[in-house]
Amino acid sequence: MKKAITKTTSPLRIYCDIFGHNYEMTKKVTSHVKEYTCKCCKRQLTTNSNGKLTELTPKYEEINIILADIYTRRMSRLKQESFSSSIY
Ligand SMILES: [Zn+2]
């Protein structure tokens, strides 16, 4: 017999439903994209391409890893450029 995949509803989740989530920034992906986790129910959100908050799905998690990679590369290149330009 197959069981339907449902997330267990904890009392904390009900608290969040009533009082709202207590989000905390957990990861800075880029200067615009950040990941947030609710301190109560551990629900995760991220900033999407429209600059709005959306549920952090595995797909978004993947996108964020790529974004972070591009971002850090660009940042290190910028640092190198400003470093070399300060020499000349
Ligand atoms: Zn919550």
**What percent of the residues sit in helical stretches (DSSP H or I)?**
40-55%
Count of the domains = 1
Q: What is the approximate shape?
A: elongated
**Poorly predicted regions:** none
Structural class: alpha+beta
Order of helices and strands: HEEEEH
Lateral strand order in the biggest sheet: 1-2-3-4
On the 0-100 scale, what is the average pLDDT? 87
Largest sheet: 4 strands, antiparallel
Bound molecules: zinc ion
The end-to-end distance, rounded to whole angstroms, is 72 Å
The Rg value, from CA coordinates, equals 19 Å
How many DSSP E strands?
Answer: 4
Quickly count the helices: 2
Strand residue content: 15-25%
Secondary-structure blueprint:
Blueprint: H1 11-19, E1 23-28, E2 34-38, E3 44-47, E4 53-55, H2 58-87
The chain binds zinc ion.
Description of the structure:
The protein contains two helices and four strands. Strand 1 and strand 2 form a beta hairpin. The chain has a four-stranded antiparallel sheet, with helices on one face. It is an alpha+beta fold. The longest helix is centred in the C-terminal third of the chain and has 30 residues, at 58-87. Bound molecules: zinc ion. Zinc ion (ZN) is lined by residues 16, 21, 38, 40-41, 43.
Task: Output the keywords.
2 helices; 88 residues; four-stranded antiparallel beta sheet; binds zinc ion
Brief sketch in words of this structure:
With 88 residues, this protein is an alpha+beta fold. It contains 2 helices and 4 strands; from the N terminus they run H-E-E-E-E-H. Strands 1-2-3-4 form a 4-stranded antiparallel sheet, covered by helices on one side.
